[in-house]
Amino acid sequence: MKLIATTGRSARETARTLAALERRGEAALDSVLPAVERIVADVRKRGDRALFGYAAKFDGLVGPQALRVTLDQMAAAWNALDPKLRNALTVAAQQIRHVAKRQMPNSWNESIVEGLTIGQLVRPLGSVGCYVPSGRHPLPSTLLMTAIPAQVAGVKRIVAVSPRPAPETLAAAHLLGIKEFYRLGGAHAVAALAYGTASLPRVDKIVGPGNLYVTAAKKLIAFDCAIDMLAGPTEIVVSSERGDAACIASDLVAQAEHDPEALAIFITTREALARAVISETKLRSRNNPVARQALKRNGIAIVAGTIDEAREIANRLAPEHLSVDAASDLRWVENAGSVFVGRWSAQPLGDYISGPNHTLPTGGMARVRGGLSVNDFVKLITVQKYSAGGVEMLGPKAALLAEAEGLPGHAEAIRTRFERRARG
Questions:
Q1: 396 and 303, same structural domain?
Q2: pLDDT by residue (tens digit) across 269-287?
Q3: Any idea what the CATH number is for the domain that residue 177 is in?
Q4: Which of 320, 358, 392, 405 is catalytic?
Q5: Contact 246, 278 (CB under 8 A)
Q6: What is the bridge-based pairing of β-strands 116-124 and 378-386?
Q7: Is 321 a catalytic residue?
Q8: Residues 6+ apart with CB under 8 A from 9
Q9: Which of 174, 258, 321, 358 is catalytic?
Q10: Mean pLDDT of 359-380
Q11: Is residue 109 part of a domain?
Q12: How many CB atoms lie within 10 A of CB 308?
């Protein structure tokens, strides 16, 4: 990690660094886009023929029959799992399901003007595809985080895809009762989910994180199939004035070990604390090559001139994960995917067991959205019902607005109602 400050000789460098960090969401997918465009177009045009070819090349599948995981295979993975891990997955699923139920919006209707009833219907999406990475680490937790909110929303068809899925991921699928699971990954999996093939019918929405190829593919198909968000490398920001250096450093190392491109930032006004955190990260990442690489590339300790400036920087960065000292800090937090309060709230607890979703916005997108939730799997359909009296009361005003916009047909459709009312 490098140390920079907002005051003194490094102030200009710090300003440039912060400006670049605010633009990190513009990070290039350009290097993989040409290859991804070819794969997506090929799967869209040739369906299974293209899909099986890419599955053999990239996923190591031999023959179409290897594409789909059977229910027996998922059950066998669950039965072979250590009972303690089965219990941990079960508890995590319960926590995630509880949060999703609390987040579920409600249908409602009310009459705020006599003669008009308005409301909304909450309806689930018809089908979703849950992408579960399986590269450097198996991620059964990602299946829990993506599939459970969809189940709570009432989605009838939930499809899981994962390249070379780990036994733990198959076991998690059995726990959740997933019926469709395909041994697929990369851009070809996204294309198949978006456009459908004979072996894998299309879905309405694709959720879940992935590598550059997956992210580029989601970007390409986003106008044809809904997506959750474009997820980049994981991010952590810790803003602290009185935190424990060892605890802060352990969280920085934990998120840094996800990816050599992970972003790990500590913000404080106390230079001594910043230097202690840097020393601790060196110590704690010494046997963790991925974390060590990420911290060397993207690890920064920022010493701000004032506490208000430190808070402003945290909000400017709009991080995926944000740690703060105390509950009183929540009043200044404006932009963050998920917030961890106090020294006991280790960020990895949120990755697995707390309940709030760990599929979170990166690249500064926490400025405009939160993490994945049950709301990503429902539609809010508005409803309006007028009585004759309601049209008589509100119709003339609506007709005037239509005429002001130069839309006489709109006005006529409204006037036809209240004129007929007047004639009885």
A1: no
A2: 999 999 999 999 999 999 9
A3: 3.40.50.1980
A4: 320
A5: no
A6: antiparallel
A7: yes
A8: none
A9: 321
A10: 96
A11: no
A12: 11
